[in-house]
Amino acid sequence: MRVGLIGYGYWGPNLARALNQTEKCEFVACCDANPRSLGKALRTYPSLKGFSSTNELWDSVDAVVIATPIATHFDLAREALLHGKHVMVEKPLAHSSRLAEELVVLAERQGRTHMTGHTFIYSPPVIAVKNLIQDGTLGDIHYISLSRVNLGLYQKDVDVIWDLAVHDVSILLHWLNEMPVWGTSFGRACVQKDKNDVAFIWLQFPSGVVASIEISWLSPQKMRRTSIVGSKRMVVYDDTEPSEKVKIYDRGVVVKQPESFGEYQLTYRLGNMVAPSLSNVEPLLVEVEHFIECSTSGQRPNTDGAFGLKVVQVLERVAKSSFSTPPQVSALMHMAGVA
Ligand SMILES: NC(=O)c1ccc[n+]([C@@H]2O[C@H](COP(=O)([O-])OP(=O)(O)OC[C@H]3O[C@@H](n4cnc5c(N)ncnc54)[C@H](O)[C@@H]3O)[C@@H](O)[C@H]2O)c1
Questions:
Q1: Between 137 and which of 132, 284, 309, 314 could a Cys-Cys bridge form, CB atoms 3.0 to 4.6 Å apart?
Q2: For residues 236 and 234, what is the distance between their CA atoms, to the nearest angstrom?
Q3: Pocket test for ligand 1, best of 30, 55, 90, 93 (most atoms within 8 A of CB)
Q4: Which protein residue's CA is at the shortest distance from atom 39 of ligand 1?
């Protein structure tokens, strides 16, 4: 499989390193519209063919990885699919759900592998938490709260929801395997005009799980912290920890029913904490190899175009706060005589 990379800006070099490292494909070409970026790629990997536009690229490759600004994803992915190439598009798949859906339909029609680069889905801590949810270790999930904040990197083309929350939304959809029935967001543009650099998102899922996501480019400390609270166990996943990224707490509240007439009592369960050992494979390498394996075998990627589309649908609705009012809230408003 001959693979080419389109876009060698901030993120492209990481993908190039993974493509160069794996033995599962031949990394043969790089395309970047900026001559300086292309020059950097060719100095680092002298055997690559270099292209300043995609026009001449297609004959040299069987598959491409696209790491260009979000607004260019649709046109480039569409062009690649129309040339019969397998495509991995960096997150998010496209800047609107209408365009993302068009790509999903086109990939299906062309019979080509179409994957979205949701790297966290391939990371050992995220996989470990998914297993804990799936095998019932955590019990019923009550709520999940996620924080992804630090100072920068400010993006010119998108706001903080489309840049950072895309990770958290993909993680939530992967863990819970359901789409939210309700969601909203609010935020503020503190530095750049009309572009929120801080936002807070609330989501509610059909199973009853509620989730909050805090994202910011304007925060003094880097924080990548998620709590998952279940009826049997609670988990803290801290991606900034060098080791012990996932900690499972045997903690909770137990309701004791009264033996005779009287008030029930709450007791606190303060059990042990366990930090499972996790593999230290590089998620980006796993992701790139998964794309190549799927392109070769025809197997559907874990983060296929349809998954990428769902993430875009949630981001779009949350950014516009266009979900209808959740049933619980309308019931409360009704009880309070508001509705
Ligand atoms: N998975 C992750 O954790 C992660 C992290 C950072 C960025 N990203 C994603 O990677 C993508 C790229 O982000 P970035 O920060 O590297 O952007 P960037 O602006 O730093 O780099 C983009 C590069 O693409 C080139 N380019 C633009 N249009 C082109 C075109 N039509 N043809 C060829 N080259 C073109 C530009 O010259 C530039 O070198 C985005 O989708 C972003 O969301 C993913």
A1: 132
A2: 7
A3: 90
A4: 9
